[in-house]
Amino acid sequence: MEAMSLLHHTTDQDIVFQKMRETFYYRQQILHDPQESANILQMFPRFLDTKGLILQDFAMMFGVETASRFLEKWNTSFKDKVAREARDLKETCLLKRLLKSALNEEMDDADEPEWDSDMASLLVLLHLLTPQPAGRKRPKKMSVGEAIDHLVKFHKSCQSLEDHLMNNEGNPQPYLLATGTSKAQVFSFYIVLDRKLLPCQSGTSLGAFDELFKCHFVFSVKYEDALSSLYTFLQTTVYNIDVGTTVESPRVKEL
């Protein structure tokens, strides 16, 4: 309680990180209590203004080696393979543009600038692991374009972030908010969770996506149905978390 009280008042970064480490196990208890878990950002408001706390908690949960796997492996082991696999898919305008971005190829003049190479490659992966219908409640299958909108949204940096939060009430799971002059020129990333902004430590799309994935574990949030195959593939195949005990769809296993 003393550490939490100090966390509400101190602005010293080193103390914030130290006290967040000291309260880690208490925070884990709260997150597994359905009555308390919804208040986690009120109880630990430093998540809202201190970059890197999500990364610290995740590393405490799984160790530094697991925490660093995605950033170490994506470009060297996975990115090119994802692009190669996607060439066999039925081509759409969106997939064509994303593949060009992922492979750093010249865009047609008429094309809107797509995301940078790394983010584009992750959205190409979403084409390989398309959203599945979620039971009887939602028999309609979500398109890949709609699913991308549940994963990352772009916001022009000259517009108010508060307006964005007001206009996006219907997205309960965490997603990335990228702000900049265009999708290819992003200056900063935030994770939107419970209609609150958590600043990402990383200024790169790959680093920000790493933080988005990790926040599901740090805040004990389940994967959104439409993105479940994507996140499960990354969890078991890239981060190597709970391999063998996590239920994988046939498509995830195949890939």
3D architecture notes:
The structure is a single chain. The protein is of the alpha+beta class and 255 residues long. It has 2 domains: 1-50, no CATH class; 51-254, no CATH class. The chain contains 13 helices and 4 strands. It has helices spanning 2-9, 13-22, 24-31, 40-43, 53-62, 64-86, 93-102, 117-128, 144-151, 161-167, 205-218, 228-238, 250-254; strands at 152-156, 175-182, 185-193, 196-199. The chain has a 4-stranded mixed sheet with strand order 1-2-3-4. Strand 2 (175-182) and strand 3 (185-193) form a beta hairpin. The longest helix has 23 residues, at 64-86. The N and C termini lie far apart (47 Å). The model has no long low-confidence stretch (mean pLDDT 90).
Summarize the structure.
The chain is of the alpha+beta class and about 260 residues long. The chain is built from 13 helices and four strands. Strands 1-2-3-4 form a four-stranded mixed beta sheet.
- Strand arrangement across the biggest beta sheet: 1-2-3-4
Give the biggest beta sheet: 4 strands, mixed
- Based on Cα principal axes, name the global outline: globular
Low-confidence blocks of residues: none
Strand content: 5-15%
Number-wise, the strands total 4
Number of helices: 13
Helix content percent band: 40-55%
Instruction: Output the structural class.
Output: alpha+beta
